[in-house]
Amino acid sequence: MTIKSKEEIAVLREGGKILANILEETLKMVKPGITTLELEEFANSKILKAGGRPAFKHHPMGGDLYFPSALCTSINEEIVHGPAVPARELKNGDIISLDVGMEWPFQGQHERIVNPHSLGGGYYTDMSKTIAVGKISKEAKKLIAVTKDCLSAGINAAKVGNTINDIGKAVETVAKKYGYGVVKDLVGHGVGHEVHEKPDIFNYSIGDSHPLNFKLEKGMVIAIEPMITLGTYKIKEGQDGFSYITKDSKLSAHFEHSLAITDSDPLIITNL
Fold first, then answer.
1. Confidence (pTM)
2. Residue 213, number of CB atoms within 10 A of its CB
3. pLDDT, tens digit, for every residue of 138-150?
4. Regarding beta strands 227-229 and 252-254, do their DSSP bridges make them parallel or antiparallel, or are they unpaired?
5. Under 8 Å between Cβ of 157 and 148
6. Domains of the chain, CATH where assigned
7. Is the preceding omega at residue 199 within 30 degrees of 0, hence cis?
8. Which of 82, 104, 105, 141 could tie 243 with a disulfide, CB 3.0–4.6 Å?
């Protein structure tokens, strides 16, 4: 766990606003017939033009495996880490999660502060939204809405004096109200100095006495990202070698914001 300074959080907020705008512009392109490659090329070019670096592209996944794209494009039963390449065409009735991270400003071009933990000198933000492709089913609409509510509940619990477990309980309570599955093998994380940092941010109750549960402190920057399913919480690896999918092949939705813990309400870094 690292505590970010007021100056660092200000730079993260600047980058987060840029990233949020890029994601919103990319989401507007989503429609039946478009390909994940088209979305990838658009988002990647926008990040580079903004003076950033795509955080996910070429990110090491273990062994000799590196993630191939700037966007994670997870469709239907894919939970997270669906690569945007090779191109896949979106179809009417699909739902898609677009997950994107950025290091900004790249190569340390900032008048105030440089991140000493990154070779590029920038600070990392991370966010995701799930949307409809054309006309979708009522159950898919409800899943998306509830997952978004899960994220809001988690954010509202992210206050000084509360704990990691309070965030997890808040997310899980909303999901369980509708009988949805809460993915347990994948979690949120710290963010800022690196694309993924400690602590793990769970989307379910781990218990107050769990060794990974501790109080939230001012200056912590975390990414809360509930992954909610229509069926089981159990997952398996996708055939592409990158994505995770629901074990029962039922729909999954995913929302994420990066935020800073403050003396009052959390500051959502990846808001417009």
1. 0.96
2. 18
3. 999 999 999 999 9
4. antiparallel
5. no
6. 6-268 (3.90.230.10)
7. yes
8. 82
